[in-house]
Amino acid sequence: MSPYSNELHDGASGHSTALTNRRGMTGFGFYLYLLSDCILFATLFAAFAVLHNAVSSGPTGHQLFELRTAFIETACLLTSSLTCGFAMLQCDRGDVGTARGALGVTFVLGGVFLALELTEFGRLLSAGAGPSRSAFLSAFFTLVSTHGLHVTAGLIWIVILSVQMRQRGLTEGVMRRLFCFSLFWHVIDVVWIGVFSFVYLIGSSS
């Protein structure tokens, strides 16, 4: 067991020290990656803003989007952000079992989100509203599917982390990867809030 793991059991002061160490272990490169991801999504949002009225005599967002489904997706991701944060708190306390359980709930909520998103894509495609139908739909599918790919990557990451926590415990390397994952997951949750507000709420009213 690493010295870092032992700090997780030293009470309130140990919890504070562990949290500081966990943050310090996160490489600067990962923050650069998150910044590049933010730039990517900012570009996709800008493209959607320019093209959202380019429907080419096709269906508009008001005709296509179902706010109820988008709201359920949003609720799932926001709740998963809470469970992810709870998992990190339990890791700081050295409670591997509870942390893995919270990550499992995060995985389920993310899986429900993806299932709803794929169902929506299937509904749009079956209605002839695919990405080739108009520039508006091309921008929509590109933005939303890029976010969905990030969620998929996050779910794979959860599985890998759960296996490592079970086999190795809360070593320094595992804690570093857990913290990086939590940053990644919170960022894609924030991006989805932008998608829900900008694409679904505003798009469905236009």
Q: How many DSSP E strands?
A: 0
What number is the mean pLDDT?
A: 86
Q: So, CATH architecture?
A: Up-down Bundle
Structural class: mainly alpha
Distance between the termini: 58 Å
The run of helices and strands is HHHHHHHH
Instruction: Tell me what portion of residues adopts beta-strand conformation.
Output: under 5%
Radius of gyration: 20 Å
Supply the number of structural domains: 1
Annotation field: number of helices? 8
Largest sheet: none
- Name of the CATH first level: Mainly Alpha
Low-confidence stretches: 1-16
Relative helix content: over 70%
CATH topological fold name: Four Helix Bundle (Hemerythrin (Met), subunit A)
Outline type = elongated
CATH superfamily: Cytochrome c oxidase, subunit III, four-helix bundle
Question: What can you tell me about this protein's structure?
Answer:
Helix content is 84%, strand content 0%. It is an all-alpha fold and 206 residues long. The chain has a single domain (3-205), classed as Four Helix Bundle (Hemerythrin (Met), subunit A). The longest helix has 34 residues, at 135-168. The N and C termini lie far apart (58 Å). 29% of the residues are buried.
